[in-house]
Amino acid sequence: MQWTVRAILLGSTLLAGQVSAQPQPEGFLCCNMRSDGSWISDINYAQRGKTIIPVGTPVKVTGYGRHRVYLLVAGGKQALGNDYSRDLEMDAFVTRYVVKNDPRLQIATFPAKIREAINSAKLTTGMTREQVTMSVGMPVSSENPKLDANIWRFWREGDAEFQVVFDESGRVSEIATDPETRSLVVLP
């Protein structure tokens, strides 16, 4: 009887997403991500009430749920939603956002304009794919299946799409969008 109760409790806990056999890495946030205080979506919309959790913030994975990764971010609880990259297995999804090495050390070596863009979660021409990611987040895989593509699609919010165009050397040559969105995502 005692084992049956334990099995039921364990099964309930697994269904609730509290226990997982998946890896629980610890490291740093790969990129600037927006949170409403408890939820981060992989689309990284800049909606009202959301604040930026800066690239390089210490992160620890504490568990998994259905299309969610539960995190401790700078000591606070957050859920990272796999809302638009569901073609990725959860362990691959997690490794996009939780990186082993602190990106801030690398950012410190970038030219001043690139550092300023990343620190303000904006873009500028000349950035590499890695620098774009640090600044505005990972491109969602549902719209960007190949990370080596010449164009990445992002959304500031809802219909405010912007496209990051890379040249043959892998650097940003253009940010294509409407004027209003441009003013929000491009460093002047």
Q: How would you sum up this structure, described in words?
A:
This protein is of the alpha+beta class. The chain contains six helices and eleven strands. It has helices at residues 2-15, 90-97, 103-107, 112-119, 129-136, 179-185, and strands at residues 26-29, 33-35, 39-41, 51-53, 58-65, 68-73, 76-81, 98-99, 151-155, 161-166, 172-176. The strands form three sheets. The protein has a six-stranded mixed beta sheet with strand order 3-7-6-5-1-8. The longest helix is centred in the first third of the chain and has 14 residues, at 2-15. The chain is globular, with a radius of gyration of 18 Å. The relative contact order is 0.14. The model is unreliable at 1-20 (pLDDT under 50).
- Gap between N and C termini, in Å? 68 Å
Order of neighbouring strands in the sheet with most strands: 3-7-6-5-1-8
Instruction: Characterize the main sheet.
Output: 6 strands, mixed
Mean pLDDT figure: 90
| % residues in beta strands | 25-35%
The low-confidence runs, each spanning 5 or more residues with pLDDT under 50, are 1-20
Order of secondary-structure elements: HEEEEEEEHEHHHEEEH
Radius of gyration, taken over Cα atoms and rounded to an integer in Å? 18 Å
Please provide the count of β strands: 11
Q: What is the tally of helical segments?
A: 6
Shape: globular
The secondary structure category is alpha+beta
Into which percent range does the helicity of residues fall? 25-40%
Characteristic terms for this protein:
disordered N terminus, alpha+beta, globular, three-stranded antiparallel β-sheet, 27% helix, six-stranded mixed β-sheet, 188 residues
